[in-house]
Amino acid sequence: MRQPAREEPIAAVTKRRAGRLSAVAAAELQRRAIALDLGAPVAIRVSPRARRLLLRVDAGERRVELVLPAGIPCEHGLRFLAAHRGWIMARLDALPRPVPFAEGESVPVFGVPHTIRHETDPRAAPVVVADGEIRVRGEPAHLARRVRDHLARLAAREFARRARAYAARLDRQILRITVRDTRSRWGSCSSQGALSFSWRLVFAPESVIDYVVAHEVAHLVEMNHGPRFWRLVRSLTPDPETPRAWLKRHRSRLLAYG
Ligand SMILES: [Zn+2]
Asked: If you measure from the C-alpha of residue 135 to the centroid of ligand 1, how many angstroms do you get, rounded to a whole number?
């Protein structure tokens, strides 16, 4: 299941010119863009296929992306960035605050807010998710990694449980289930029946997880997004529209944790 386009990109139609902007020139432009102080790193790419300058703010990576058609002079790209500084700053401002896995931070687990706490009891389990808290034992330096690993494991277990239940209802076999840190798609299903999910769905409410899992499991039967596919999805999870809208609205939030 592909994620929707991150942001409507700003585009400017430009004349193609002779000569090509080399990777070296792009790197040079990237260095000079730092002086514009845009409030986020700028990634600049030259695309021989691009017909116009494309500018967008990647919410997940929290960075500015500029795609230049081959042959656009360096100065032009820089001027374009400078001219859209206000737009870029407004987009960055509107992004959710990054929430690190750190003591005192609030992180949702299956949509329910949990506060991260350092566990001082040496007999406690390394990570415990209970009573609105994620309690983490051990060196504070390892806290973030422990939270991440634990949530990824929790996600894998929970997604697998739901996927098997749905697959049984459709009388299909799942080859394997993996969780990854994919930022461009929430889930996928291969033609061999291997399912993959973004572990970041662990932050989403259960109804959203149900929908994404049902969506990928339905691909075990229908490898397309036609009417029969959607009928199957609805047979597993009755209202796919609400979670779909939720994912669209909260995508950058899900990418801001950790
Ligand atoms: Zn799909």
From this structure: 36
Q: How far is the CA of 8 from the centre of ligand 1 (A)?
A: 22
pLDDT digits (tens, 9 = 90+) for 154-173: 999 999 999 999 999 999 99
| Ligand 1 midpoint to CA 185 (Å) | 10
- Between 35 and 186, the more confident residue is 186
- Residues with Cβ within 8 Å of 188's Cβ and at least 6 positions away in sequence, in order, are 1, 182, 195, 196, 216
E strand or H helix at 90: helix 85-94
What pLDDT, in 10s, does the model give residues 168-225? 999 999 999 999 998 889 999 999 999 999 999 999 999 999 999 999 999 999 999 9
Whose CA is closest to 21, among 86, 87, 66, 84? 66
What are 43's two structure tokens? 């990634």
| Range list for CATH 3.30.2010.10 in the chain | 144-254
Distance 95 CA to ligand 1 centre (A): 27
Please name the amino acid found at residue 161.
R
What residue type is assigned to position 8 of the chain? E
CA of 217 to the centre of ligand 1 (A): 9
CA 191 to ligand 1 center in whole angstroms: 12
CATH 3.90.190.20 fits 144-254, yes or no: no
Ion ligand 1, residue ranges at CB < 5 A: 1
Q: Cα(184) to centroid of ligand 1, in Å?
A: 13
